[in-house]
Design a protein that fits this description.
The protein is α+β, with helices and mostly antiparallel strands. Helix content is 58%, strand content 13%. It contains 22 helices and 9 strands. Strands 3, 4, 5, 6, 7, 8 and 9 form a 7-stranded mixed sheet that branches. The longest helix has 30 residues, at 248-277. The radius of gyration is 27 Å and the shape is globular. The N and C termini lie far apart (72 Å). The model has no long low-confidence stretch (mean pLDDT 87).
């Protein structure tokens, strides 16, 4: 089945390309073949039926998420990553560091993405940027496979494997990562693969596994500097064995060649990059991290790392990197909350942050704390002997957390506290939670069922949150009315003002602004400023009539931010009591600067 589905995929691709099939037809043909190939591969690997169903279902959901997620959504530097890929695809050489914000990064991901870019340009089935997002789904599939292989190394109990797999594939940040045009997806996939071979070597003591782990680790460093965490894990594990195991000389002879090869590869890479970019070694490792704007800096005192602000975590559903009320000042607040819905700047991404999803997010924030407490309480019951069995995972998780703490301490930006830097720890945490739940079910069934209900509810909410339902919610659920007084909107906000300036009124698609007029009066002219690339409907409520006027969009090359409109009302509407502004078309990032009537 693997060979047949792979052959059919290879045959279908050029046929669809020659036929100039549209993306919908191509997806109808290719998706079943891709899912068949994945399912057959998972079955060949010995995965259980429920594990296969969960992974296949997750891939379908990632496709649904992809259908409404462009490469810049929830991915602030996505356009810069695309510039790197595009330059490499068109010129066949690495771009100069000045070409884009991320052009200092190692080339591994961008070389692979450039190959995908060229394939998309050749077949014309999808746009190159969309093709690279689909490539991310492929890499996420590989990540998930290695995640399950790691989980199966520690348990053969199908209920544990099933629950741990479901937590990995349906974790909120997994949805975000699945279609991200970003080098994080490659490095996290490589780190999962490297971690698997390290676990395999620790358990089976086969030199081949150490060689493979070292090779994958070296490749991860060529993808992004996060790969150094895996280097540290490998070295620390070898150091542990040298201290606590007998036959140290034999062990050293076995470990020295792959370790030396890894070291030489990394040193050669660093030297080459330093010579070609003419940058300092530290800048080659951290690159644009040095250029973070001071407005994104947060506190860097001990309490910023030790204190957890429960109030802001529960009350504010999203993490805003430039708003203190969201908990951005505290390491653990930021890390936990960004693991759910990523880090936003000043306003949440309105593609997902409409009212229904905000309520879901608030519930999930509370649930993740309950799940974490459940996990930590269960870990406390693990014996010392069993703890050694999980040493590789514990060591890797601890190093991830130390890395992100050190990164943030070195350059104390809120963005350096994002979960994407430590995303692979979702494997160890999911396995730990599933093992704790199983342990409770064996001893205290009520606690075991509690763990299953918590995780199951969390997974269900995560799925509902990321399902494409925006139009359904906006068109069929009641809209929230943001009531404003006339004097609150009477200060003129000029054209080209940033759409998300904090003083503007930011609206989701299921919200509208209503301004009451007191006293009631005749309206002849309406002066307003709204986001330039959207459409808005003005409804004027008079004593004897209700008038509707549509404004926007204002599309002009080089124009960004707000556009200002002076709308004549002919004939005038008498005794107007209120005016409503409803955003109904555009990029779903809606804002109002001012609204003045005359």
């Amino acid at each position: 089945m693997i060979i047949v589905s792979a052959i059919l995929l290879v045959i279908a691709l050029p046929i669809l390309s020659v036929a100039r099939a549209n993306p919908i037809v191509a997806s109808i043909v290719l998706s079943p073949l891709g899912l068949t190939l994945v399912g057959a591969t998972l079955k060949r690997l010995g995965f259980g039926i429920w594990t296969i169903i969960i992974i296949a279902g997750a891939l379908v959901l990632y496709g649904a998420y992809f259908s409404y997620t462009s490469f810049g959504e929830r991915n602030h530097d996505g356009p810069s990553h695309f510039k790197y890929v595009e330059y490499l695809a068109k010129h066949g050489s690495l771009p100069p560091p000045s070409h884009c914000f991320v052009c200092h990064h190692p080339p591994a991901y961008y070389g692979l993405a450039a190959a995908v870019y060229r394939l998309c340009a050749l077949t014309k089935l999808v746009r190159p940027e969309s093709g690279i997002q689909l490539f991310s789904i492929v890499l996420m599939t590989v990540f998930i496979i290695y995640a399950v292989l790691i989980i199966r190394r520690f348990t053969q109990r199908e209920s544990v494997i099933t629950l741990a797999t479901a937590l990995v594939v349906f974790w909120p940040y997994t949805f975000i990562n699945s279609v991200r045009l970003h080098n994080d997806i490659l490095v996290t996939t490589l780190m999962a693969a490297g971690l698997y071979y390290l676990v395999k070597w620790d358990q089976d003591d086969r030199p081949t596994d150490l060689w493979v782990a070292a090779a994958v680790t070296a490749f991860s460093v060529l993808a992004k500097s996060n790969g150094y965490i895996l280097v540290t894990t490998l070295v620390a594990l070898i150091g542990y064995r040298l201290v606590f195991r007998p036959n140290r000389l034999v062990l050293l002879k076995r470990c020295a060649p792959p370790l030396l090869t890894l070291g030489v590869t990394i040193i050669a890479f660093i030297v080459t990059r330093t010579l070609t970019t003419h940058a300092e070694i530290g800048e080659n490792v951290l690159g644009a991290a040095y250029k973070i704007h001071p407005r994104d800096y947060v506190g860097n005192e001990p309490h910023n790392y030790l204190y957890f602000d429960l109030k802001s975590f529960v009350e504010e559903p999203y993490l805003l990197s430039r708003t203190d009320g969201s908990g951005r000042q505290y390491f653990w607040n930021h890390l936990l909350k960004s693991s759910l819905f990523a880090t936003h700047n000043e306003v949440p991404d309105l593609e997902t942050a409409y009212r229904l999803n905000r309520r879901i997010a608030e519930i999930m924030n509370v649930m993740v704390l309950a799940m974490l407490a459940y996990l930590l309480a269960g870990i406390a019951l693990i014996t010392k002997q069993r703890f050694r069995r999980y040493l590789v995972l514990v060591l890797n998780t601890a190093l991830f957390l130390l890395f992100i703490m050190a990164f943030k301490a070195l350059i104390p930006s809120a963005h350096h506290n994002d979960f994407r830097f430590v995303y692979p720890i979702v494997i160890a945490l999911s396995l730990g939670y599933a093992l704790v739940t199983a342990s409770h079910r064996d001893k205290q069934r009520v606690l075991g069922y509690l763990g299953v209900v918590l995780a199951g509810s969390f997974i269900l909410l995560s799925i509902v949150y990321y399902l494409p339902k925006y139009d359904l919610v906006v068109n069929y659920l009641p809209r929230k009315v943001l009531r404003k007084k006339e004097n609150a909107l009477s200060t003129v906000v000029p054209a080209r003002t940033k759409w998300d300036k904090r003083s503007n009124i930011i609206m989701a698609g299921d919200e509208l602004v209503e301004m009451a007029l007191a006293p009631h009066r005749t309206v002849k002219t309406i002066d307003l400023s709204v986001d330039h690339n959207d459409q808005y409907e003005l409804t004027i409520f008079g004593q004897q009539e209700t008038r509707k006027i549509v404004v926007g969009p204002f599309i002009k090359e080089g124009h960004e931010g707000l556009a200002r409109y002076t709308q004549e009302v002919e004939p005038p509407v008498k005794k107007v009591r209120a005016i409503r502004l409803w955003p109904f078309g555009g990029d779903r990032r809606y804002s109002l600067g001012h609204l003045i009537v005359k």
